[in-house]
Each structure stands twice: as structure tokens, then as C-alpha cells.
Amino acid sequence: MKSFAEHTQQLKNYRLQLQPDPYQPVEEYFTCQVSNMGSVMLPLLNGWYVHKDSQLTIYPDGVIAGSLKAAMAQYPELVQASLKPLEDHKQDELTISNKEQFTDGIFLYVPDNVKVEKPFQIVSLVNSREDLLIQNRHLIHLGQNAELSIIQCDDSTKYGKTFLNIVTAITLNRQARLHYYKTENKEAESLLFNHLYVNQCAESFFHSNAITFNAGYVCNDIHVNLNEPFAEAQLYGLYLVDKTQQCENRIKVSHNCPDCKSFQLYKGIMDDEAEASFHGHVVVQPDAQRTNAFQTNRNILLTDKTKINTQPFLEIYADDVQCSHGATVGQLDDEALYYLRTRGIGERSARKLLMFAFANEICQHVDIQALKDRLSDMVQRRLNGELTICDQCMLHNADNGGLIFPIDPTKL
Amino acid sequence: MHHIPYLCSPKKHLMLKIENLHVSIKGREILKGVNLEVHAGEVHAIMGPNGTGKSTLASVIAGKEGYEVTEGNIYYKGKNLMDLSIEDRAREGIFIGFQYPVEIPGVSIANFMRTALNEIRQYRGLDPLNGAQFLKLMNEKKKVVELTEKLSNRSVNEGFSGGEKKRNEIFQMAMLEPTLSILDETDSGLDIDALRIVANGVNQLKNQDNATIVITHYQRLLDYIVPDVVHVLFDGKIVKTGPKELALELEKRGYDWIKEEYEQHKLS
Fold it and tell me: What is the ipTM of this complex?
């Protein structure tokens, strides 16, 4: 696998689109087909927020959602306050280049005590015949006791190559709860960097669930600061990669105070010559007593040409803590395989069922039922070799010659 | 000694015939010449102290890997079982109720059973069941073991109590309608209510065309599932066969007298 730095070097080969496209009725030709989800769409086209009415919507309950550029003009203090997580974390060069170059992004603000019922769906569409660099910055700010769910779909169309560099800053005030779902369905030529910087106050809850269905090169970089007692972070991830796809998950959770919890579960199935890595780093600071921190990375490798580099890593300076870490690289559970076969299920189907079971564990942690069902279905079809990119999206159906990368269960 | 004419009518269809079966695991001999005949319509109990090869016998019939048959044969409906894969044995109508059913997170019971049923049907040249037919069948069979809606929507055995796992085994048996069921220590870890439900389920499924082998350490289960024949497995062999009263005697006297009889028999 090319190193993170080598990928980063390529940034200069892509063109940054400095102006938004003329308005296009994105809502008309893009609809998410996940039924019953009733999400509020926040579409980005080639790195710019697009909306037919206004760049920023202010809802009756005080929720603000829309273009970051517009928010910077209208609510500079709120934007400034939402930048805090970026200042608190050590930043890599891509985050710094994003700071200098970002064009637009999403601004989401939820006032104190507001529980947003419908999830917001950030859809980043790329439709360009040029090799495009997209520098997006999303700022998400939840007030005290506020609740929100976000779904972020990172898709690409088949035109041109893209380099997506997304930096997201999340502020969770006291007792705020955020569910953050990501689906990544990228074609072979694309580069996607998702940096997430999270600051959590007392008793806040953060849940991240990132599923990589297809990738060129994807890097999910998550930094969580647990800054006040009884904050909790749950981080889940799944990567299903084949051919020469590459996926990296790099996580750093800092327990900066006592009585916080963090949980990481990342799973992957790799076929052909795909490569993946998991760097899970938990730091427990000296006064972070009674920390609970768990991290697990489990992998199934279908060929001997796939590579996984897994590094669960605990750095503990406190003495009264419960921490565990573990990683497995291997095959399917023989006992389970046997059990299924004693019920008349053929070996091939049994392996498929178990692979699905292995992967679907991550989907089970999705709280929105319609989304959970949809993701499970996508995982199933991905393993059957039937799923291309989010194939009900109009944008993909319009001109999709088929990007089928089946994972072949017979290779187990 | 192994075939008892007064218990097994000769007209009955011979379902399972085990001849002088010797089985080793990693070079260690566990079964040392087992002979057994089971006919359609019969319930057999195989009893014996722990570590005498009861579960090994079930595993060999199921086709589990790692069990080496060094001598002897197993015929099921006239076919040599050793020629069949694990799944084909199931498709031919053999069912194993496990002592410790594995948990399979992420696979729903419905998806699991539908896959199994349709692969069995395909093997037998039948059309697959559609969604509606399958659900109807599942709802019908759930009643056999009083399986609740909540349980059937969950992943296979995941987080189930001991009793729920065993009920799920019998539910699967009801769904797949096997001709030969081998229930391995189905009573272990069950409280009296769960035992009653599980046993009722097994009794409901019993008919003249199928057979059941109940492997158990205790007589308790046999109060509910009444066997036609009781065998005692000891030191890798069936050392005693008798009517259902034998189980009561074992309950009263333990296994020591069996051991003594066996030792004396060996000496003589």
C-alpha cells in the first residue's frame, strides 16, 4: 500500500473548483431510495452546497443547517465556537491544507435541548470530467442535551478522478447525543480522506459507524477528545474491499478526564489484492481514573495476497482503568460452519451466511431501522458480488456500466 | 444382545444400522466397536457416564471433521453415511440437536432456516418456498416449542439462555422434519419448565416414519420422552441394552454396577 504521505502528495495533481456550479436541481435527479427514513438532504456538488431556496435554513426550533460559507457570513460567532475541536487536536498536513483551501461544507447547529427527529443526510456528489480536488469542511455543533443523527454518503460518479479531503469538527456539549453514519462507495480511481475531530463534554454520547463498500483509497481518520466525566464514544467500522482497493482506519481516542467510556469495533473482509489497515490508539491521561476503553479489530482475509496491518494500541497513564484491545486476522468460525452444514446448508452458502454475519454485526449498531435494513441489504449484495455503488441512486443508475467487484467466498 | 426382537417389530423399516464402529480422535480410540440398529417409529435412549463416547457417536453420524472411522460402518436407509457430506446427510433427513448450539451473531433464525429448508428442498427436487409460505410454516412450527416472536427475530442462539437454545434446536427439528433425530444431551442446563416444553416438542414430532435417538446422562428427560429401547454406552461400547425400565434402574443405582459388570465380563 502506498503510504498516507504518498497519497497526500498527489493532491497537487487535482484541480480545486473555486466557484460553485450554476444551480442544478440536485434534489430532482438525486433522491436517496432508503424508504421510510425521511432524511433532510444536505447536498454538495463538486464541493459546494447546493439548494434551490437558500444557502442556510433556519428551522423553527432554532436548528441551523446548510452551507458553511453562508454560516460564516451570518453566524460568525457560532462558526468560531464550532472550530474548537480542530484547535485542540494535532493536525496532519491534509487538515492544514483543508484549512487553507476549503471551499464550502456543511454547517449544522442544534440549540440546547432540541432533539432533531429526522436525520440529516450529507451527500457529497462529484460530477466532473476533470480530476477534481474537493476540500470540504463540516462543522457540527450540538448544544446541551441536544440530539441529532447524521448520515454522510460519500459516493462518486464514474467521470474523472477525485481527491476528496473532508475535515469535520464536532462539538458535543453536556448530555448531547450524536449518531454519525457514513457510507463510502467509491470507485477505483478515487481518493477519500475523512478526518473527524470530536470534542465531548460531560455525559455526551458519540456514535460513529462507517461502512466502506468500495474504495479507491479511503482513509477514515477519527480523533476523539473525552474532555469531561461520563462522556462516551462508540466507534464502529466495516470495510469490504477487493481488487486493489485500499482502506485505512486511524483512530485516536483521548481519555482526558475520569469516568469516560470508549468502544471501538472495526471489521473487514478482504479479497484479491486489497489492503487495509487499522490503527487504534487510546490514550488514558494520568487523572483519567475509572476509564473503560475497549478496542477490537477483526479481519477475514480471502486470499494470501491481501494485506492487513492492524495496530490496536493502548497508552495508559492512570492506574484504575479497565482497558482491553485485540485484533484477529483469520478465517470463518469452523464450529459455526459445521452447525450450518448440519442443517443442510451447503458449504458455499454457509460461508456466505457467516461472512454476512461477520459483517452485519456492524450494521446491527445502526439505530435508524430503515437505514439498518438498507445497509444490511447492501452488505449482503456486496458479498454476493451484486452491489456496485449505491445502485438505487439515480445518479449512478443514469450511466453505470457496472463496477462489480465480487468477493468470492470460494476463496476462503 | 444388541437387537431385541420383542421390542422391535421386524416389519419396521430399518433406518440406522451401525456395525462394529471404531472411531479415533487424534489417534486416541473413543468408540471401540459400537453396534446399533434403529427402526422407523422408535425412540432410543443412549445413556452412560461422561466421557464414554456418547457425543462422539452423534458427531460421527453428523459427519464432523476430525473423527476418524478406523473400522466398521454406518448405514442410513441403506446408504453408507461415510460417502455423504455433512450437508447431504442433513438433506437425507438426519438432524443433530446439539448439546452446546453455537451462537451466530448477525444471522437471523428466519434467514438461517429459510436457507436450510430451501437447500434441502432443492436437493430433493422440490421448488423453494416463497416468503409467504415460509412464514406460514415458521409460525406453525414455532408453536411446537412455544417459541416467541421476539426469539425468532433474533440472531441464531445469540444471547439465548440454555433453555432458549434447546428450544431453538427443537424448533429447527420441527422445521426440517428429519427422519432421524439425534438429540445430544438436550436436557443439560434445562429447568423443569424448559424440559417439559422441549420434551413436548419432541413428542409432537414423533411419528411412525421417523426415529429419535436421545443421548442423555440422566433419567429425568426419559420421564417425558419415553424410549422404546435404552442402551448404556461405556468405554466406547454399548454394554447393556434393555427396555425403558433400565433407565429407572440406572437412576436408582448409578453407573457403578454397570462398570463392575463390564469389568467382570472382560475378566471372564
Answer: 0.94
